[in-house]
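Many introductory courses stop at the sequence. We go one step further.
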Amino acid sequence: MKLENQLIGSSLLTAITASLCCISPVLAIIAGTSGMASVFSWIEPFRPYLIVISVIALGFAWYQKLYPKAFWTKKDKDCECSAEKNPKFIQSKIFLGIVTVLSIIMLAFPYYSRIFYPKIEKNIIVVDKLDTKTIEFKINGMSCASCEEHVNQEVNKLKGILKSKISYINGNALIIFDKTKTNKTEIENAINATGFKVGYKKEN
């Protein structure tokens, strides 16, 4: 049972750790502290390995739960003392099922994290074409959709942002703005305030 509990704990812990890089931007929005968004971005390269560890740990835990006799010693087989008729809740299949569901929810977090961000509402603004400007920022540290949404939220707090397209895959932000209301320095500062850093700027 000790091994089983260790496997259950390890699977849940690794599942949570694997998603910390995507959970922190959401927590930053809730807490109102933008700078903490990139605190766990360094975990992203290890995410695939953490997912594998979590799945393997859960697999072994379920195997041990469904086929307990495979782990019995000779002494256990002789007396069948390992067969608990009324196991504690923490040792039950229900508890293992709950941990499995929680682990799946944590591992899948990057795919549904957008629902935690407030919807950006844009009013129709008429701007002289001569007053519009497009700029591309290279952004370091973004690792998932949650990261790009956090940057998008911060940029759109500025007045004069007409359109923003943030991509964690390309590691960039394409911003179209009204240069009479904001400028590239303010936009860059807004991005840097999230904890992700601007690498270079390309103006059109």
